[in-house]
Design a protein that fits this description.
alpha+beta; OB fold (Dihydrolipoamide Acetyltransferase, E2P); five-stranded mixed beta barrel
Length: 125
């Protein structure tokens, strides 16, 4: 009986600690504001933002509808997903660029969008 009680306490404690860890990691996520052309990506709820310099960002949002802005120039703000991995990827790209072996310098990362604002109802060609 005592073992079952201890196991129950441990399980409940774990359920309380895991969300707190996720919140602490998300709280420190890098926030970015980007402007570019929004297009539909391959996934059901995935979109791509192409900035003026040609870099692309994969956009996701659980709270905003991005579909009405497809084909528009938009200003988006959001949190970089896996910011540590994003920074490491940027360093590798910079090194590749220095050595002339830059195959795909355009993709920059993934952004969880928290705000979207239309700049223009079309994209620059």
């Amino acid at each position: 009986m005592r073992n079952k009680w201890l196991l129950s306490v441990a399980a409940v404690s774990t359920l309380l600690v895991v969300p707190a860890i996720g919140y602490a990691q998300d709280k420190g996520a890098e926030v970015r504001t980007l402007t570019g052309c929004l297009s539909k990506a391959e996934g059901a709820h995935e979109y791509k933002l192409t900035t003026e310099n040609g870099s692309t960002w994969e956009l996701h949002s659980k709270t905003l509808k991005l579909s009405p802005h497809t084909g528009h120039t938009v200003n988006v703000t959001g949190k970089v997903r896996a910011a540590d991995l994003h920074e490491a990827k940027e360093k590798v790209k910079d090194e590749m660029k220095e050595h002339g072996t830059d195959k795909d310098a355009t993709e920059h990362g993934h952004l969880n969008v928290t705000n979207v604002k239309m700049v223009s109802d079309s994209c620059k060609k």
